[in-house]
Structures are given as C-alpha cells and as structure tokens.
Fold this sequence. Notes:
Layout: E1 3-8, H1 15-24, E2 30-36, H2 48-58, E3 65-70, H3 74-80, E4 85-90, H4 93-110, E5 113-118, H5 128-136
Parallel strand pairs: 1-2, 1-4, 2-3, 4-5
Amino acid sequence: xxxxxxxxxxxxxxxxxxxxxxxxxxxxxxxxxxxxxxxxxxxxxxxxxxxxxxxxxxxxxxxxxxxxxxxxxxxxxxxxxxxxxxxxxxxxxxxxxxxxxxxxxxxxxxxxxxxxxxxxxxxxxxxxxxxxxxxxxxxxxxxxxx
Length: 146
C-alpha cells in the first residue's frame, strides 16, 4: 500500500492545500493529512483538534484520506503511518528552499522521501497567513477556503 503524509499547520486549510491533496490522490492508496499541533515557527489561531475536524469534514466522502493531529516531526508521523512519502506543496522559490532543506533532513534522519509539488499558478498567491490576516480584518475569505 502506497501511503503519503501531507503535513502542515493548516491554519486555515486553504483551496491551495485541497488542490495539492486532490492532485496526489491518483498516486496513493492512502493519504494522511497531518495537522501539527504546534509549529515552532508560527503562531496558531485555531486549536489543532478543530483544524483536524474541519479538514476531515471536507474529505468525509473520500475513503483514501485520513486526517490526524500530530505533535512531533513529519518524519515521525510518516513512520507511524508507514508512509513512504511526505507530500509538500510549494508556491515560490522561498518555499522551495525551505522544503528542500526539510526534505534532505527527513531523508537523512528518517529515510523518508519528500515529494515537492508546485502549486497551480492560479493558487500560488494563497497562503494560510494571508487568509488569517484577511480574517483578522474582517474580510470575507470564503473564496480561499474549500
């Protein structure tokens, strides 16, 4: 069984994230969307359990997708789920550099490959932090959320 984990803080989960998952579905028997409880680089707005439940509702009719909260490294989640791949979306050169470094570390410490998937160009400008900022100022963000 070919399993991939798609990991992130997903605060909030955007149409860009959804696009990556749906594009990866044909390649995997199972995709685990891993919602990290705490990201040391980001200030969270929504509790992980709530983010997880929101994402699970999106994929309620998709048997190949599971959504789980995790508290450690993506590579640790990959090992627990017996995943051969970590899936990461990239929107820019900045994302690429960060994710490439993480991919190399995950390969070195956990022998897990990472697939870096380019965002669709029409979605590349959408980020969770941008959506959070719009939400903070009371803007309608429904077009950015699945």
